[in-house]
């Protein structure tokens, strides 16, 4: 039994780096995991890794900078796991603009 048995986690930017490692770590502690990322290929790879350790998991292609997409992410997560117990906003965005002083 893990410390996070049957908890539902939503991790943005979960297809690589810290997000991927966090998803795998909390899955090993018993959590079911939803990962979102703009990189569908890497997201599907992490999804397979999560399922290989016998965890329920879902990948959602998601650009966190698009506010209108958030409702769909929350809806898909709660439809699948009924709740969100853990939210890790790991995805980063950057905006290239000129700065005038």
From TrEMBL:
<dbReference type="Pfam" id="PF00106">
    <property type="entry name" value="adh_short"/>
</dbReference>
<protein>
    <submittedName>
        <fullName>Short chain dehydrogenase</fullName>
    </submittedName>
</protein>
<dbReference type="InterPro" id="IPR036291">
    <property type="entry name" value="NAD(P)-bd_dom_sf"/>
</dbReference>
<dbReference type="InterPro" id="IPR002347">
    <property type="entry name" value="SDR_fam"/>
</dbReference>
């Amino acid at each position: 039994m893990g410390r996070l048995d049957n908890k539902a986690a939503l991790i943005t930017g979960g297809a690589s780096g810290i997000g991927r490692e966090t998803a795998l770590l909390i899955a090993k502690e018993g959590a079911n995991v939803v990962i979102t990322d703009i990189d569908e290929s890497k997201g599907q790879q992490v999804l397979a890794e999560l399922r290989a350790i016998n965890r329920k998991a879902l990948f959602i292609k998601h650009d966190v900078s698009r506010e209108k997409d958030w409702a769909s992410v929350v809806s898909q997560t709660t439809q699948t796991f009924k709740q969100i117990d853990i939210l890790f906003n790991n995805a980063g965005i950057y905006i290239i603009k000129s700065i005038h002083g």
